[in-house]
Protein: Formate dehydrogenase
Organism: Flagellimonas maritima
Amino acid sequence: MILAALYMGDQKKRNISVTGNIEFSDLKITEPSDYAAGVPGIKAALEHVSKESGLFRSLKTLSQMNQKDGFDCPGCAWPDPEKPSKLGEYCENGAKAIAEETTFERVDREFFKKFSVEEISKWTDYQIGKSGRITEPFILRPGSVHYEPVTWSDAFQVIAENLHSLNSPDEAIFYTSGRSSNEAAFLYGLFSRAFGTNNMPDCSNMCHESSGVALSETLGIGKGSVVLEDFYSAEVVMILGQNPGTNHPRMLTALQKCKENGGKIITVNPLMESGLNRFKNPQQVNGILGTGTHLTDVFLQVKINQDVSLLKLIMKRLVTLEEKGEKVFDHEFIKEKTNGHQSLLDDLKRYDEDKLLELSGVDSAQIDEAVALLAKKSKIIICWAMGLTQHKNGVENIKECVNLLLLKGSLGKEGAGTCPVRGHSNVQGDRSVGIMHYVSKSLNKSIKEAFNFDPPEEEGYDTVKGIKAMYEGKAKVFMALGGNLVSAASDTEYTARAFQNCDLTVSVSTKLNRTHLTAGKTALILPTLGRSEMDRERFVTVENSMGKVHQSQGRLEPASEHLMSEPEIVANIASTYFDTETTVDWKALGEDYNLLREKMSEVLTGYQNYSKKSEGSGFYLPNNVREADFSKLPDGRAQFSVCKLPEHFLEKDEFILMTVRSHDQFNTTIYGMNDRYRGIHGERRVIFMNSKDMENLRLKAEQVVDLTSNYSNKERRAEKFKIIPYNIPPGNLCAYFPETNVLVPNNLYADKSNTPVSKSLTVKIDSKNYI
Ligand SMILES: Nc1nc2c(c(=O)[nH]1)N[C@H]1C(S)=C(S)[C@@H](COP(=O)(O)OP(=O)(O)OC[C@H]3O[C@@H](n4cnc5c(=O)[nH]c(N)nc54)[C@H](O)[C@@H]3O)O[C@H]1N2
Ligand SMILES: Nc1nc2c(c(=O)[nH]1)N[C@H]1C(S)=C(S)[C@@H](COP(=O)(O)OP(=O)(O)OC[C@H]3O[C@@H](n4cnc5c(=O)[nH]c(N)nc54)[C@H](O)[C@@H]3O)O[C@H]1N2
Ligand SMILES: [Mo]
């Protein structure tokens, strides 16, 4: 009945732009900054919040962020200190995230009456994001180009009827982005399993999946091992492929403490990112008036994707010192706790030092400085992020880091360990509570015991496989708990077509984004509460990057009275779909989060007494590496790995491109047009390039070019970028995503983890269209 009424309209194809119109705005270039935060950071934060949501309201909101009785920052997953600062425990980019969420702008009935999806699709991602918060559920009917209001109950009916019409549960896909709470994610995973599929791709497939795979295989847990306090006693912190000044600004405070306590920092990056150079802590007088804290002691300017070459060289030099009689390695730890040490040493012998040096592109004397630090110290933390994970050999990049830590015995002790710095604020929690495409036998067993149904036992789709299935018509219903998969995934045109092939696409969302435009035949947007907003008297929980689970409770009036919380949305979908044919009381679980947490603690390990324990600063989940317990691994030992060198066969005119975040974006959400630290203002379509390479190609600063990639004989093109001379290794280029995702083929992803290769793309520069 309802379906018939809702499916009116012809099946005409919508004319949707998958990238938006490309226009240059007003580019200004300045010298890159040599420090992060300080007064400009405070100024930028205040500008963003006062423009979007009023200064007074925003400051009040910010004062509750990351406090024990407040809400968790919707930005990154960096942990809060035990004693949050009274001045406020947030950073410039956390303030921007809040400004985005608390904006006064609204996407309402009038908005969608005025603008068709065809028109909106021509806007840039920046313009789409700035249109505001979604106020009520909307439906896009087949053949229609205008979203129209729909009641919540009709929306749930549309989903239920589409799910019932599938030939197999595996024709549905349930995506999660890492902003969902533990409660919402658990219920969503439970629904997917009760429905009958493990098709639960999530944003970590594109993010730290390589870390999860590498760490599980070598250390027995897919998460990092350090806690925040370890930074305060670490002797050496090595930071590879991460830009904390922009993406995890509160990490700089931890690095500052490390330095104050005598620790040293080694940075491995193709770029000298400002935040890794010097930090002017905006909460300290010295940070406002003084020169701040110098962070990096040794900067190794590695070529893109040559970290394995560099790490092998570092280990070879450490072996040489050891052979000369210095005590470099922790032999007791190696003997007691590890497997495969000799294979690693044998493998290292195969490589020629000069060759490794040349490949890495790093200065030999600087490598010696790093080696000298590492040789003498054992409290070593290795941090990394997307600069290691998003390569063909992403998993081996991380295994090579683990090798170094194992040699040094830098695991299972204070001030030492692994630190994959997570992205989304609750991406780690979502995984812990059951969002994953693979099968966990023990989880299935406990779900069966607690809920009395049999969860499916076949592995489901990750993001790469899910998009392929939609493209090929094998999956017909796509649902997303947050996120913007069309813009975030590779091969934008291919991905957009995959979505448009679906019968139904559903987005549980706070704000409008491109995925809502490149929609399936029918599409639903289900508006939900943001982190900062009041969910009646209820609180949710999240897990930070270091495995600590704690509560989060918003206090702001919601953006609209028609918003529904994520757990309730999921519960309603489930109860409408199952009606009476279910062993789970969905409605009760979506309503009463304490009850939900009680059930979660029955199913999940480490969550006993969950509601109570998550109050205040929360509790740590069990972590075997912290205890130096490797009993789950072969022979009960941590595993050394033999890693190959990455291979890049470049033609003379080809470059390696890394796609990164600017200072004014959160993934596909564009806060502004500046990348202040790198000296870019007013424009995003830029390519950072070594000036020698520019000379060779006779390119001038700000000259307009296209980027092309050619994989499997298919040329892909990203149009109109301005060249920026920059301190980047020769042969390497850097540009922002999502604009460059059109260049990444859908079938280019890391071995084992399937993480798209978005940090080492082979590309050419084509200037002929603009001469
Ligand atoms: N404000 C803000 N905060 C965020 C995000 C955001 O978009 N904005 N995103 C969140 C998410 S989901 C994530 S995953 C994290 C991402 O955090 P990051 O991983 O810091 O983000 P990227 O901008 O991708 O930066 C990658 C860094 O790796 C370096 N790099 C690239 N290739 C290589 C390489 O081959 N070797 C080495 N050694 N370095 C390399 C780049 O120069 C850059 O400094 O941040 C989270 N926090
Ligand atoms: N080329 C290239 N591509 C990349 C990367 C890269 O470095 N290079 N990085 C990858 C990485 S690390 C990641 S994690 C992915 C990110 O992929 P996603 O997580 O899918 O993308 P986001 O841009 O974080 O999602 C933003 C959308 O989430 C919704 N949202 C925001 N807050 C909330 C909330 O509280 N609840 C709900 N329900 N929705 C909300 C809003 O609608 C917003 O538009 O992108 C990946 N793509
Ligand atoms: Mo991420």
